[in-house]
Write a structure and sequence with these properties.
Farnesyl Diphosphate Synthase, two-stranded antiparallel ribbon, 2 strands, homodimer, mainly alpha
């Protein structure tokens, strides 16, 4: 049995240190921007995406420092997306990770710029030779992250989510929305381990299959927490989906139906992992964690 | 004598076609996002940055299709920066290129997402093997563009600009602001030609020196147009700098003093170009164009 919480806590510290090295110093007349970039990415979060990258990379014997670095770069993208999603014109969220959201701590303009600069920094980090000695591998990482972040990934999903407010989406539409909004970046976090380690096509496909199930499960659990969770534990505003008339799996299948779907996704994910033919205990434990978390 | 306007018009068409191939099709439930990405980048603009990339690349015999592609990727970054700079929380501009700004044509959330997705697309484009067969060259391009766009480039400059509103900056501070806000991306547009063509260090330094002078001259001319220009010709809101109490070279040196500074920058730029030891007539003509343009 893997002690996942201890492992995640240890990795979160390493990611924190990696981010501290990557993020610009707070200096010069633009110091406010660098402060906001750090505020948005440091000191919080489960660091699930970096953990997935490291766990996947470990299957291929990738040096730890490399996978931590790539995981932290993914976290820069995740952090930028949270800052922009929280803006008044988007989800208008007041809190994030138990603190004021970035635009409330600073202001809207600074938050927009901090998100923009975090995205640039993520790609700058990936192409640095410190990421991997082979430029072809670095290019594959940039291509994968850019695709996951763009119109057929995270940004596309957020667009659909905004358009869906107050509309009745069917289950297929909701699943497509979540595949892009949350799934794409989680998928890349897993795939990045295989890219770093030169994994075979079947191995990459198995990891992506696992990640697709995990990403959807993550989102369903997020939606369940929005309905049943405790704001003091999750560190963010709750009951927002229903208030905004958002289409979610939980709204459509109900709480019990959603829990049943989580169990199905777990079975499917474990079948994908078995195909890898190696010890995937950590990735299995991540799945259990994601569907049982309370924050 | 180079017929610059004809050359720029011809290249603008090629850039338009390249953007059309790069930009995502308008399809799927997120079609609104793809529409806004196209609205923000197609059908307008002088395409100065791509022109600089192609003119610089021509010095090193780079295949035309490659430099056009890289120039168009830079234009994606430029386009995203205009969309975000025009937002109500930033410069609150109503028009751009003679049309409603992106957030007025769509809405703020769509404009934020379109800018974000354009940034991702720029990096996705650069790492594609179609950009250059050597992955090391592609990585150098991503590194250069990410640096030019980030906290020590464009985003940093925009932050300083926002903080400067209503404050009395001295000339050194204004020059630093503009070096980052406008200069960094123009610098990369020139340097990219040398990166694509494997130019020597002295050649890269000469191009960067030229670009620094050009970038500042471009901004001074922009500020002069804001004071003396015709909104029907420039296609954007004017007299906004003075209204916002913005610190500009023109506010500090006056119109005649600014024109004197343009002449000095021209001399300096041409000294840099002479160091290249080849026919730099096109880049000289670009400088003349930039300091004499009326839009």
């Amino acid at each position: 049995m893997v002690d996942l919480r201890a492992r995640m806590a240890a990795l979160a510290e390493e990611v924190e240190a990696a981010l501290d090295r990557m993020l610009p110093a707070i200096d010069g007349p633009q110091a406010r921007l660098q402060e906001a970039m750090r505020y948005a990415t440091q000191g919080g979060g489960k660091r699930l995406r970096p953990f997935l990258t490291v766990a996947s990379a470990d299957l291929f014997g990738v040096p730890h420092a490399r996978s931590v670095r790539v995981g932290a770069a993914i976290e820069l993208i995740h952090g930028y997306s949270l800052v922009h999603d929280d803006l008044p014109a988007m989800d208008d969220a007041l809190t994030r990770r138990g603190r004021p959201s970035c635009h409330r701590q600073y202001d809207e303009a600074t938050a927009i710029l901090a998100g923009d600069a975090l995205q640039s920094l993520a790609f700058q980090t990936l192409v640095d030779p410190a990421t991997h000695p082979d430029a072809g591998v670095r290019c594959a990482l940039v291509a994968g992250l850019a695709t996951a972040a763009g119109p057929y990934g995270m940004c596309g999903g957020q667009m659909i989510d905004l358009l869906a407010q107050g509309r009745a989406l069917d289950l297929a539409q909701i699943l497509e929305l979540q595949r892009l909004k949350t799934g794409a970046l989680i998928g890349f976090a897993c795939e990045a381990g295989a890219i770093l380690g030169g994994g075979s096509e079947p191995a990459r496909a198995a990891l992506l299959g696992y990640a697709a199930d995990l990403g959807l499960a993550f989102q369903i659990q997020d939606d369940l927490l929005d309905v049943t969770g405790d704001a003091a534990v999750t560190g963010k505003d709750l009951r927002r989906d229903a208030a905004a008339g958002k289409a979610t799996v939980v709204a459509l299948l109900g709480i019990e139906g959603s829990r049943g779907r989580l169990a199905e996704l777990r079975n499917s994910a474990f079948v994908h992992l078995e195909r890898l033919g190696c010890d995937t205990g950590v990735l299995r434990a991540v799945f259990e964690f994601v569907i049982s978390r309370s924050s």
